[in-house]
Amino acid sequence: MKPSAPHHPVDTAQAPLGQQGPASTDPLLHRVQVGDVGLTAFEWRAALRGQQPTLLLVHATGFHGRVWDQVVRHLPDRHVIAVELRGHGRSQAVDFDSWTAFGHDLAGLIEALDLRDAQAVGHSMGAAALVHAAALQAGRIRQLMLVDPVLLAPADYHLPALPAGTLHPAAGRKNHFASAQAMFDRFVDRPPYAVFDRQALMDYCEYGLRPAEDGAGWQLACAPRFEAKVYPLARQNPGIYASIRALQVPVLVVRARAQDPAIKPWDPLGSPTWPGLAQEFRQGRDLHLTDKTHFLPMEDPAYTAQLITDELESTLG
Questions:
Q1: What does pLDDT average to over the chain?
Q2: What is the pTM of this model?
Q3: Which domains does the chain have, with CATH numbers?
């Protein structure tokens, strides 16, 4: 059975701070200006803010804040904010030259939202941005969970830079769809999307589109060329280890199964995380899930929510 049809894909309409969605269960939409970048964040259960630590969620490259919807559904009593990094979802696609930009943006957003003593979960590139932001905003983040972060061995950050303008094959992604349902139908049986929970995949499609520039149909909210610029810059982030070692908070590194070298040119479902990463944090722990993929939050939202509950909520009492 297919998931329920979407209400509408993401559009580019302006919305005031705190706009309520069409249904009472929908999150509030916040637009925040951080430097020269307009960023978006979604807030669930705003009435709980201040009564418990906020749970901050940060998505992976190419995704958006609403891919966390199914995880949030399994956390019915938590105050949650899911952000959208520059170039993703409703946030502005301002150019960048390193992953440091995402960390600085996120740090500014954390300050603008006046988050204090928050708990945070980041996925993939979003986890790397979260580490940088948490170091810049010491005292505002009390605990981190990094889900299969794209954080490499220290030596990897000293390799020669790729030629300027190098783009990942994602630049050639299909970028026009008749509807969110058409996007879902195209992706549902294709890797890596085939491992996604079906409703999580529909959330990705529903909220990952915006009106096409030619006025016909829909295009990806994270433009293929923007996404493709992110990947080659993964190792152009040498300052990340200064951020890692500056953190004075508990950090759980969740690693997915190892990459399969038989899958060419690379295995998108395998973990990109350096196995020795957790020991580099002052209070780091490693959890290796050999039966899960890199796309854990979308693959198994219920299990992801349980991990969050076990790791983060256990510290509340």
A1: 90
A2: 0.91
A3: 28-156+163-315 (3.40.50.1820)
